[in-house]
Amino acid sequence: MQPLAADLAQEDLSMFGTDPLWLILLKAVFCFAFLMLTVLISIVMERKVIAWMQLRIGPNRHGPWGMLQSLADGIKLMLKEDVVVKGADKAVYILAPVLGAIPAFMAIAVIPFGPADDPVTIFGTQTVLQLTDLPVALLYVLATASIAAYGTVLAGWSSGSTYPLLGGVRATAQIISYEVAMGLSFAAVFLFSGSMSTSAIVGAQEDRWFVVMLPVSFLIYMVAMVGEAHRAPFDMPESEGDLVGGFNTEYSSIKFAMFMLAEYIHMVTVSALMVTLFLGGWRAPAPLSTWWEGANSGWWPMLWFTVKLLAVMFFFVWLRASLPRVRYDQFMKLGWKVLIPLALVWLMLVATVRALQIEGYTFADIVWWVGGAVVGLLLVSLVYDFFKERSDRAKEEAEAAKPEPEFDPMAGGYPVPPLPGQTLPPVPRRPSRQEKEPEDA
Question: Which coarse location class describes where this protein primarily resides (predicted)?
Answer without folding.
Answer: membrane
